[in-house]
Amino acid sequence: MDHAAPALPAAFEGASVGCLVCGGSELFTRWKGLLGCKTCGFVFADLKLSGDELARIYGHDYFNGGEYFDYGAEEESLRGNFRDRLRDLSRISPDLSARDLLEIGCAYGFFLDEARHAFKSVAGIDISKDAVRHAREQFGLDAQHGDYLALDVGRKFGTIAMWDTIEHLNRPDLFIEKASADLSPGGLLAVTTGDIGSLNARLRGAKWRMIHPPTHLHYFSVDTISRLLRRHGFEIVHVSHPGNARNLRSIFYYLFAWGHKESPIYKSLLHWRGFDLRITVNLFDIMFVVARRR
Length: 294
What we know:
By secondary structure, this protein is α/β, with parallel strands linked by helices. It has helices at about 10-15, 50-55, 60-65, 75-90, 110-115, 130-140, 170-180, 200-205, 220-230, 250-255, 265-270; strands spanning about 25-30, 35, 45, 100-105, 120-125, 145, 155-165, 185-195, 220, 235-240, 245, 280, 285-294. The protein has a single domain, classed as Vaccinia Virus protein VP39 (Rossmann fold). The longest helix has 18 residues, at about 75-90.
C-alpha cells in the first residue's frame, strides 16, 4: 500500500449530523458531556475536535505516560491478545492466507507483525507519526501515517481490522462506509470496542472505565454497532466478549497513576519484578464483532 494520504483533511473534522448510527435528530444529555440518541440509544461525547487536535492527542505522550504507561513495554501482552484475535478470525474465515489485510489504527504494528504470517499481505495506517515510524523501522511493515478517509487504497482487501479504534474516531460512520467500499464482496470487517450495553457498563454508568473523552468519543452497544454496520452493507457474523491480557504494571498504572501527576502508591511499586506478570481480565464489556460485506 504505497498510496500517499494527506495527514488530516477537512472531511475528517465533519459537522454536526445528529446520530451517526440511525440519523436521528432527537438527542438528549445522557451524562455530563455525553449525548444520547432517543431513537436508537447511541451514546457519544458532546465534542467536535479538529483534525489537528486529534493529531496532537495521539502523539508520543499518548503511548508513553498518557493513556498507556509504556505501550512498547506491553508488547508481549498485546501480541498475546492479537494472537487470540487471529485465532478467532481463522475460525470464522479459514481462508485468511488468501486474503489481503488492512489495519486501521495500526499503532506500533504489533498486530500486523503477527498477522503477516496468516494473511497473503498486510498493511496499516495510523494517525500517529511516532507509532507508524516504530512499525516501519522496527518491523519493516507497510504502514503509513495519515487519515484513512483520504487514503486511496488502489485495490480491494479481503479483511479490514479496527482494534480498539472506532471509539476514537470523529466520524466512525464514514470510516465504516469507506471500509465497505474498500472490501471485496464477502470481505470481513473485524472490530473491537467497548460495549456500553454490557452489565458492567450499565452498573457503572457515567463512571464506566471506558468513558474518558477526548480519547474515547463514541460508545457503542452490540445493537448500535450492528445497526451501523448493517446500514453500510454488512451482515454480522460474529459477536463475543473476549478477555484482554495486560501486565500488572499497566493495570496498576490505570488504577493508581493514570490522570494523576503524582502517585506514591504506584511509584512505590514501580520497580517490583512481579509487575511483568501477564494477567487476563474479562469484565465482558469489550466486544469483538466481525461483519461480512454483502
